Amino acid sequence: MPKPLWLLVIGMVINVTAASFLWPLNTIYMSQELGQSLAIAGLVLMCNAGAGVIGNLIGGMMFDRIGAYRTIILSIWITIISAFILAYNHTFFYYATLMVGLGFGSGMMFPAMYALAGKVWPEGGRKSFNAMYVAQNVGVAVGTALAGIVASISFDWIFLANGLVYVGLLLFVMTTFRSFASSREKSGATTNVFEQNLAIRSKRPLIALLILCVGFFICWVAYVQWQSTISVHTQNLGIDLKQYSVLWTVNGAMIVLCQPFIAFIVKRWVPTLKVQIYVGLAVFMIAYFVLTQATIFSMFLIAMIILTIGEMFVWPAIPTVAHQLAPEGKAGFYQGIVNSVATGGRMFGPFIGGVLADAYGMETLFYVLGSMFVLAFVTTAFYDRVLLTKRSEMFASKGMM
User: CA–CA separation, 368 vs 291, rounded Å?
Assistant: First the structure.
């Protein structure tokens, strides 16, 4: 990998480490320290995710308009200000308001970093986005581990540590990103009126991405159940929190350690990104059908191992497709769409899963989730038909058909 991508990977690790300080502790803090109900805590987290969706879209558009460097710097400042105000103001009003600020600032950062990853190593293809995906998971592992240590000393220190890590990210970006983050996106801008007109009129790549993202949304709705309904389900079955945390430890370890194995499979037997997504979706389906029979820890562990293999195929493939579909000067916007769809899945997934689980039970929920991947197969199969239609029209107009 080129040096700029390595710097981006390090930046992503620091970014997600900072964000992960709060992810596992939000609900606990609001319920135990601030005395709020689980329903209110869930509403705050939904607002946080909603702000992230908006941040994803705005961050992507800002990448295309003002460049990666300025977008990333602005997003870091928003998170720093929110984190430090939160560190010294612990009332529920401040907490709820500043969680929106943190969600918005963090949301702006992700599409800018992903779009920049595609630009600094265009010949790398899926490897660029796979590296960013692994970096995110390393950040989650480091952040949640550090959060547990800091929280054992004092909950209040969590917010201060969160802000300090973002300050570290700001200094890192200011000292390392300026050269490549400023120069690279210039080549991606439209250069004349004709190109600008094409970028505005050509909606087919956008339609293709939106079709693909319907399936991506389904994947995230299913995936986030592991953090919501499945976590409660394991408790009801007598599986303690320590064992449940082992599932996520295995998930993170596999994502980092199994990359050579996945890379070998992709290089040897997976010729295209579409096939890569197909393989991931099939593996996802198997994981949820295994869950229908899971009543002991070992079965949940097997399901998590299968799930992790599936996500290693699907998660890096979608932003890679978005990068390939994006017209000149629209890379940030397209990555913003992908990130906002993922955030939307995390936002609505717990509610959808909770309603189905309450009404029909967990086994039915797992069957429904497994069956929903059929629709994801359909959207994956047809998303590029829009592009084929465009090519056919072009050939016909030239008398080539």
Answer: 12
Report the distance separating Cα 226 and Cα 236, nearest Å: 14
- Pick left, alpha or beta for residue 35 (phi over 0 → left; psi -120 to 50 → alpha; otherwise beta): left
Q: Tokens 């017209």 map to which residue?
A: 327
Of 174, 164, 221, which Cα lies nearest the Cα of 350? 221
- Domain 1-189: give its CATH superfamily: MFS general substrate transporter like domains (1.20.1250.20)
Phi, psi of 231, deg, nearest 5: -65, -40
Residue 359 structure tokens: 């009404």
Domain ranges of the chain: 1-189, 192-401
Q: How far is CA 113 from the centre of its chain?
A: 12
Quote the CA–CA distance of 193 and 358 in Å, as a whole number: 56
Are 1-189 and 192-401 the same fold in CATH?
yes
Whole-angstrom Cα distance, residue 117 to residue 132? 8
Q: Could you tell me if 27 and 41 are in contact, meaning their C-beta atoms sit under 8 angstroms apart? A: yes
User: Which amino acid does the sequence have at 344?
Assistant: G
| pLDDT by position in tens, the chain (length 401) | 899 999 999 999 999 999 888 876 777 788 778 888 867 888 888 899 999 999 999 999 999 999 999 999 999 999 999 999 998 888 899 999 999 999 999 999 999 999 999 998 888 878 899 999 999 989 988 887 888 788 778 777 888 999 999 999 999 999 999 888 775 444 444 433 334 444 444 688 999 999 999 999 999 999 999 988 888 888 889 988 778 878 888 898 899 899 999 999 999 999 899 999 999 999 999 999 999 999 999 999 999 999 999 999 999 999 999 999 998 888 999 999 999 999 999 888 888 888 898 889 999 999 999 999 999 999 999 998 888 755 444 433 433 33
By C-alpha distance, which of 197, 213, 212, 211 is closest to 328? 197
Q: Looking at domain 192-401, does it have CATH number 3.30.420.40? A: no
Q: Are 322 and 205 in contact (CB under 8 A)?
A: no
